[in-house]
C-alpha cells in the first residue's frame, strides 16, 4: 500500500491544506490560524472562566505551544491574563475589546473553509463524513 492510500496520510495532508488556507486568509489580519482558533474559543466560552489548561484539553496541544500563542496575542492586545485569588500561577484568559473585534473575521474564515467541504459533498455525504470522523476521533483519542 502506498502512502496516498493510508487514511492517516490523507487526514494529515488535509489538515495541512486547511492550516495553509486558514493561515493565508488570517495573515491579512496579522495573525495565524492557531491564534484565531484560540480567540474563537475564548469568545465562545466568555461566560466561563478559561485557563490555559482548558485550551490544552480542548485543542489537544502542549502547554508550551499554547503559551507562545497566548504570549503573542497578549503582546498585540487581543488577550489579557488576569490573576485569580492573588495566585500568580492561576490566571484566567479573556479577550480584550480589540480581540472581540477580530473574532468575527476569524469565524468567517473558518466558516468559508467548512463551506468548501459542504459544497463538494451531498448532504448525506457530509453527515456521513461527520459521523465517521467522530468515530475515528473517539477511537484514537485515548
Overview of the structural elements:
The two termini are 26 Å apart. The chain has a two-stranded antiparallel sheet. Helices cover 68% and strands 11% of the residues. The model has no long low-confidence stretch (mean pLDDT 91). It has a single domain (3-140), classed as Arc Repressor Mutant, subunit A, CATH 1.10.10.10. It is mostly helical and 142 residues long.
Helix run count: 6
Query: Any idea of the CATH topology?
Result: Arc Repressor Mutant, subunit A
Beta-strand fraction estimate: 5-15%
- End-to-end distance: 26 Å
The count of DSSP E runs of length 2 or more, i.e. the number of strands, is: 2
CATH class: Mainly Alpha
Order of helices and strands: HHHHEEHH
Numbering strands along the chain, what is their spatial order in the largest sheet?
Answer: 1-2
- Low-pLDDT segments: none
Structural class label = mainly alpha
- Largest β-sheet summary: 2 strands, antiparallel
> How many domains would you count in the coordinates?
1
Task: Itemize the secondary structure elements and their pairings.
Elements lengths: L6 H21 L5 H12 L7 H8 L3 H13 L3 E6 L2 E9 L1 H24 L2 H18 L2
Antiparallel strand pairs: 1-2
Helix pairs in contact: 1-5, 2-5
Compose a concise summary of this entry.
This protein has 142 residues and is mostly helical. The chain contains six helices and two strands, in the order ααααββαα. A hairpin with a 2-residue loop joins strand 1 and strand 2.
